[in-house]
Amino acid sequence: MAPDPDPAAAVTIAEPSAVTAGWTTILWRGLCGRCPQCGRTKLFSGYLKVRHRCEVCGAPLGEMPADDTPVYVAMVIIMHIMAVFITAFIYFHYIPGLLASAAWLGLLILSCCIVLRLVKGAVIGILLKLGVYDRHI
User: Fold this and answer.
1) How far is residue 100's CA from residue 105's CA, in Å, rounded to a whole number?
2) Fewest C-beta in 10 Å: which of 8, 69, 82, 112?
């Protein structure tokens, strides 16, 4: 019986990619939900579903292993911003605990849904620029 393949071998780092755009351009295109390589087509086919390939330039968008990184980055960003707003609001205003908790939870969920898509686009742009692909998709 053959041994199981090494799970670490699933993610490969290719040669430097053909992406010639600069880092700021790549990040901006990813944040805007466009193909990081050409910027002419949409990056997502659904809310967080990434297209398999770009229809214009053929960039392998669906092969980027952007699994948990966008979630962690989005949570760090949102939690830092929310901590400042919650602390300032509690300091200057009084609202009963249950009402405040419901309001902050709703705002937290809404902001995470907005920021997660932006961060996922930026992470896919970074992975494309670095040439990191997941070949087992």
Assistant:
1) 8
2) 8
